Amino acid sequence: MSARLSALLRLGSYGVTTAFIAVIGLVAAAVFISAAGSYSWGVLASIQSAAALFGVLVGFGWGTTGAAEVASMPSELRPSAYADSLVARVYLITVTYPLMVIVMGLLNPTHLDLVLVGSLAYLIPYLGASWYFVGESRPSRLFLVDVMPQGLGVLTSIGVMAASKSLVAAVTAQLLFNTLAVCLGWIVIRASAPDRPRLRWSVQSTVRLLAQQRHPVTTAATSALYVSAPMLILNAVAPASLAQYAMGDRLFRVALTVFSPVLQFVQGWIPEGGTANLSHRVKQALRFAPAVGLAGAICIALLGPLAVSLLSQGIIGFGFDLSIPFGAVFLVVSVTQVLGLACLVQLGKTVALATSTVFGAVLGVPLLVASTSLYGVHGAVWALLASELVVLIYQARAVIAELRRRQPPQPTT
Predict the structure, then answer these.
(1) What would the DSSP string read from start to end of 131-144?
(2) How far apart are CA 413 and CA 406, in angstroms?
(3) Burial class (CB in 10 A: 0-12, 13-18, 19+), 191
């Protein structure tokens, strides 16, 4: 099999995985809105958004740079490295879950039962092995072991919601299947390792490991902060507009899910060519990824209002005034994902990756607070776009500088 055909087959495998998740996620949103109403669904969406922020404390950077690190790691060392990360993340979730419940409970005192169940349901996947399977370039494992159980959980929750009209019962179904996915991931990884690694519960070793993750977790935390901040701010100052922003955010995240095969493929493909071809493959990735991102952005901008109308059965208003900036946000984020999570990591510039997101947060969060407070949902999405542009510019400059440094000197005449 040619290298090009093999690459296309791998990319196609990732595509099947993401299509499965994207479709059932949209169906679930439509059923939940119809059965529970736009406001309750908006609360659920805010819990999901908050989980993306608090989940950073659980994933602690492994979901950000773990795939690229696994791809460049000797295969015999990978299972033990995953086992150590799992122990660390189990410790972290025991601290993070109560913290998230307190924050979201204060914001949504009338939905405490949903906060209790939803916070755990959407934090549990951060214990999973999706990044590990991407790093070892095993899309079949990613689908069967991680994505399929979670997807079955969403499908089950749709049936539970239709029968019970209870968001709490529906999300409980997701919690059970998400936990199953985490357990299956560890079982498969351990069973496939010749040395059968064990979970070592040493606190000292875990602390040392977490210290090594300071740059990846800084990247993940600051990025999640300004991506999740609009929902949290709207939840606090303008809860009536939660559903409107949540639909735009849902379209954005579905588009990122559709784009993820490109990122997952690139994260494994760049290091496969070896050090000699690293710069060339980085350049190739950066020629291809923006074109895919632009196509997705156009779809969001042009089809977003129609999609929201169909999903919410006309309950939630969403026009081009929101779909266009959300499309622009997707374009910028799709490029920065490849620049940062694939290119900068493989170029050994995780510090630059972390710094870019810090700049984005330092400039973006105050702008988000001010714009959201003054202009509501429109201010939130435009401020988010400004934050992401800061990250894009910094990362692009860092990649270009490193590629120029790696160029061989030109012969003199």
Answers:
(1) HHHHHTT-HHHIII
(2) 21
(3) exposed
pLDDT in tens, the chain (413 residues): 555 555 555 555 555 666 677 777 778 888 888 888 878 888 888 898 889 889 988 988 888 778 778 877 888 888 999 999 999 999 999 999 999 999 999 988 989 999 999 999 999 999 999 889 888 877 778 888 988 899 899 999 999 998 988 999 999 999 999 999 999 999 999 988 888 888 888 888 888 888 888 777 777 777 777 677 777 777 777 777 777 888 888 888 888 877 877 887 787 778 777 777 888 888 888 888 888 889 999 999 999 899 888 877 777 878 899 999 999 999 999 999 888 888 888 888 878 887 888 888 888 888 888 888 888 888 888 988 998 899 999 999 999 998 888 776 554 44
CA dist 16 → 22, 50, 62, 269, 399 (Å): 10, 28, 24, 18, 31
Task: Tell me whether residue 4 is in a domain.
Answer: no
Contact call for residues 294 and 331 (beta carbons, < 8 A)? yes
- Structural domain of 350: 10-406
The two structure tokens encoding residue 304: 């977003």
Within a domain: 343: yes
In a domain, 100, yes or no: yes
- Contact (Cβ atoms closer than 8 angstroms) between residue 74 and residue 148: no
Query: N- to C-terminal Cα distance for the chain?
Result: 44
- What is the spatial distance between Cα 219 and Cα 356, in angstroms, rounded to a whole number? 8
SS3 state at 41: helix
Nearest to 214 by CA among 59, 340, 60, 360: 60
Domain membership of residue 413 (yes or no) is: no
SS3 of the chain: helix, strand, coil, percent, to 5: 90, 0, 10
| Contact criterion met (CB below 8 Å) for 249 and 88 | no
Q: Which residues of 115-137 are buried (b: 16+ CB within 10 A; e: fewer)?
A: bbbbbbbbbbbbbbbbbbbbbbb
Q: What tokens appear for 105 in the block?
A: 């409970």
DSSP for residue 111: G
Total domains in the chain come to 1
